[in-house]
């Protein structure tokens, strides 16, 4: 461990899909002290994880890089570095797994191509049903009026 409770740990290869994986040297992990409530443990132990992943300089396919950079995510810096802070759990190992799981989820979500929506119009029966319901409501409201 280096000064101020920060260290850099090596990982194994992170498998995203069958054909996409990230080598361990592209993911930078630092352990920091977690913020918030937790008593003495928070002040003594560096259990939170600060994960940094440089998208433009990664080995991901170009289409994946473009989609990740186009996400407009607040965790993405102007340089294209994705920063994930995991501090939900009390142990370093659980927080590290959580950060890696979240990185994997972000990348898989970026790979999903949204289907193009074909604009449709309501059918003849749907339009007739709508006008019938409107007429029915109108007659109900008309019956509420005072008899003249």
Explain how this protein is built.
This protein has a single domain (3-111), classed as Double Stranded RNA Binding Domain. With 148 residues, it is of the alpha+beta class. The model has no long low-confidence stretch (mean pLDDT 79). The strands form two sheets. It has a three-stranded antiparallel sheet with strand order 3-4-5, covered by helices on one side. The termini are far apart. It is 36% helix and 16% strand.
Give the tags.
3-stranded antiparallel β-sheet, elongated, alpha+beta, two-stranded antiparallel ribbon, 5 strands, 4 helices, Double Stranded RNA Binding Domain, 148 residues, single chain
Rg over C-alpha atoms, rounded to the nearest angstrom: 27 Å
* Second-tier CATH architecture: 2-Layer Sandwich
Averaging pLDDT over every residue, what do you get?
A: 79
- Widest sheet: strand ordering: 3-4-5
User: What composes the largest sheet?
Assistant: 3 strands, antiparallel
* Share of residues in strands: 15-25%
Q: Level of helix content?
A: 25-40%
**Shape descriptor:** elongated
Q: What is the domain tally?
A: 1
**CATH topology group:** Double Stranded RNA Binding Domain
Which series of helices and strands comes N to C?
Answer: EEEHEHEHH
Q: For this entry, what is the oligomeric state of its chains?
A: single chain
Task: Walk me through the topology.
Blueprint: E1 14-15, E2 21-22, E3 27-32, H1 40-44, E4 48-54, H2 62-70, E5 81-86, H3 92-111, H4 124-143
Antiparallel strand pairs: 1-2, 3-4, 4-5
Helix pairs in contact: 2-3
